[in-house]
What we know:
Radius of gyration: 18 Å
Structural class: mainly alpha
Order of helices and strands: HHHHHHHHH
Distance between the termini: 20 Å
Shape: globular
Largest sheet: none
Strand content: under 5%
Number of helices: 9
Amino acid sequence: MRGLQAARTNILPGLLLQSVMACFIALYLFHDGTRDFLAKVGTVRSQMGYAFAVVSYIFSGTLLPEVLRIVFFQKGRIGMDNLWRVVSMAPLWAVLGVVVDCFYRLQGGWFGVGNTWDVVLIKVAVDLLIFSPLIVNPLVVAYLAWQKERFQTSAVATIFSWDFLNEKIIPTQIAVWCVWLPGVSLVYSMPPLLQLPVAVLIQCFWVLILTTINESDSRD
């Protein structure tokens, strides 16, 4: 039931993200300026290596949501809680950026760097059925729960419990499947140097959605 509720909650955000991705694909295919911009971003990523993943994921996963929180929900007032969230969440997104970048490189080595339908399909399947539910989602959800408790050791026991799996990890994973399916399909359709930059762009929209939903839940 929690999983179905998570799916229903994310129907409209999922449609929004799919619409944005459709526009993005159209721009990439038919707009020279977009292709030139992404080519430059791909060059920067190649030069920076894993540092690009760290910086871009910290921005899209930590700084962006706090700016949105300050602008839309705090009426421009900055508090210590904002600083705490930036400092405490930055390590998570830095590590996650490196993990995702490494995973994309491994996928290219395992299945090739082409963008034919069979290559894209197997990469999407490995991503959404193995990498996301077994590595990324548990890591993110557990860290968020621990961070919410100010990293108290007593909170660790609740993370490794059936209730936590049932109430937190499974519903979140279903929401991820609803929203990210078109996103990862687009990522694996891109050339290797553009996969991480495109994933960061998608994550920016995903963070926008999560910020809005979470703040609405808090007010309710």
